[in-house]
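SAMPLE LOG
Freezer: B-3
Tube label: C17
Construct: single chain, 184 aa
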Amino acid sequence: MMATTHAFAGLAIVAPIAVVVPEFAPALAVGAIFGGVAPDFDLAFEHRRTFHYPILGAVPTAIATGLAAFAPAPPTAAIAAFSATAWLHAASDALGGGPEMDPWTNPSDRAVYDHRRGRWIRPRRWIRYDGAPEDGLLAVALAVPALLVFDGWIAIAVLGGVAVSLVYTLLRRRLVAWTPERFE
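STRUCTURE (predicted):
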């Protein structure tokens, strides 16, 4: 899935909390957005293995959520949102295709690495590849709760993310042809 889809999923998760505790809304949004994209910083390493923890991510998420419940404050809310969204990102990558640049030509059997069991989780391909039409549709649907709950710069960022998602979805299959070989 696209990084924007992951960020919108995180915003959708924290949106109900932001309604109940509006003074934490900016911290929750920042945590969710950064948590949604952070696992993909492993693109420079072994993608979907280095910073993706689909099983073990439950531990820091439980700790961070417990801390936020015990000591509610914007920083603890942001940390809990970051951790939960990063975990959701890693776990939901198993619902898509593999990490290869062109999964429609030679799909792999590796979606995301399970560090606990020491093996790769197979892709489910509900979202065939990042930027697939169904990914674009999911991104737009997941952006709706954020647009209903958050305002100001957060809403502007979400609208910008929707625009990026739609353009990426339209161009995704062409991008492989435009990518220099050293990045494949």
